# Entry
Amino acid sequence: MAYHLRSASAPSSPRSNETKVEQQLQSLSTATSSPSATIDTMCDGLRTLGDLFGCIEKMVCTPSNQASLCQTVQVRKAVEEELGRSLVLLDLCNAMRESFMELKTIVQENLLVLRRGEDASTHAKTYIRLVKKTQKQFKKITRKTVSDNKQCRVVMLLAEAREVAVSLLESTSGLLSKQIEMPKWSLVSSRTFQKSKVVCEEEQLQALERGIGDLESGVELLYRRLIQNRVSLLNALSS
# Structure
């Protein structure tokens, strides 16, 4: 069952806004790192994280925060460093989006194979290789995203949200990999199908296809919000 987080709408007080965003980031991190997390949990998490980045972007755009982001050389440097790290996260989102598109294509091909009663072993191996490739890309990228910046509260929230995003995407990749390796997700079948088995496998693949589509939409939302945050930060630096 999906973990439903509270709405990420921004309260009126700037301080309470920051506190609420920080609390929801912590709740989101706990929910998506839980052993009981599902694809639905990750989909909800991506949507919530997109909303939280939207709240942070609104904070960045306030006159007081725009002034504070350029107040000292140290804070300005912290903002520039966070802008650099956000590019890494954007690259990760792009890699995940491409992988989701390929995964959906392979799932659709497997559905056709099942319905024709053919051997799905080749497609299954391709599917597993693709997920492992995604995980390798992810691990290579995430090593560059760690930040210990505490110079500015808004920048600190951006860093925390980015780290939650990286963790969420890692958990998503791992969850997909585990589901593929589990017997109930096995795509390799004998040439002689029992009707009930074929129906069951079709339902599993259709559910997986829907889940990947929802994950794709969530990553797309996150990507758009990251771009908006970058634009707002760059505007603040140039003001």
